[in-house]
Design a protein that fits this description.
By secondary structure, the chain is an alpha+beta fold. It contains 9 helices and 10 strands. The strands form 2 sheets. The protein has a 7-stranded antiparallel sheet with strand order 1-8-5-10-4-3-2.
């Protein structure tokens, strides 16, 4: 085993190191030294300005209805195969709020062409994060069970590392269709967050893992002026968001919700 691997294993076995201020600063420098917003990489300057300010932005009618309906049809067909253990991608069914299938771009030529490899989305991701950003986790999320709840219903951040995501609504997402909530402006790092960023690395899934109680959120929003926004929209809407920001899911009340997504990471 190399010296590098020995050091890595030692750090992973030492929560006090992972939770230290020095470790956080070193990791942040390593991961963010190539990250900067670059308006020259996209033509969507107003959209990029909104992302920079709020942490999320919408493009209504990103795709026409006929393509959206075909993507929804193909997604349901892929889900049926997954439920029969015949889907060539991965399938996550936590029996909670949502079901997820992955490697969708490898199983739908249309999805790969009009969404996952779309130049406009790719350019926006590079402009917002870095020229080096890569698209991963090419998935469809399904909410099909009314009333189901999940840990993600608590306000949380995904990571202090960059998690920029693009979501395409394959169905209308109204107040009863399990929309995501997002607290505008909470993606911008502030001193109060440092404790939680360090806890995230130190405790992982055995700690709060970026989640906040309702009472904590009341105080955080009051002190920082964060406004909660419900991410509703018609089918064909494209949602772009920085998931370092605080957000939460909501239970499905009626109907169904299909959303195609991809994650951009360094």
């Amino acid at each position: 085993m190399s010296l590098k691997n020995h050091i890595s294993n030692w750090i992973q076995a030492s929560p006090w190191i992972r939770g230290s201020r020095l470790y956080y600063k070193l990791q942040r420098y390593r991961l963010y030294k190539d990250c900067q917003i670059d308006y020259s990489l996209t033509k969507d300057h107003e959209l990029l300005k909104t992302l920079e300010k709020d942490g999320l932005a919408f493009i209504p009618n990103f795709l026409p209805d006929d393509q959206i309906d075909q993507l929804a049809k193909e997604s349901m067909e892929m889900l049926e195969l997954a439920e029969k253990d015949q889907y060539p991608g991965y399938f996550q069914n936590g029996a909670l709020q949502s079901v997820r299938i992955g490697r969708v771009d490898q199983n739908s030529e249309l999805a790969k062409r009009v969404f996952y490899d779309d130049a406009r989305i790719q350019d926006l991701a590079k402009a917002y994060v870095s020229k080096k950003v890569k698209s991963s986790r090419r998935e469809v999320d399904f909410k099909l069970t009314p009333g189901a709840v999940a840990d993600a219903d608590m306000a949380h951040f995904d990571d202090w590392r960059q998690r920029f995501k693009a979501f395409l609504f394959l169905t209308d997402v109204g107040p009863e269709n399990g929309p995501m909530n997002y607290w505008k402006g909470s993606h911008i790092p502030k001193p109060w967050m440092l404790r939680y960023f360090r806890e995230y690395d130190r405790d992982g899934g055995y700690g709060r893992f970026g989640h906040f109680f309702e009472q904590e959120m009341l105080k955080i929003c009051e002190e920082n002026g964060y406004e909660k926004h419900s991410c509703t929209g018609k089918k064909g809407t494209l949602l772009l968001a920085d998931f370092r920001g605080l957000h939460s899911s909501t239970p499905l009340i009626s109907g169904r919700r299909l959303i195609m997504g991809q994650v951009f990471e360094m």
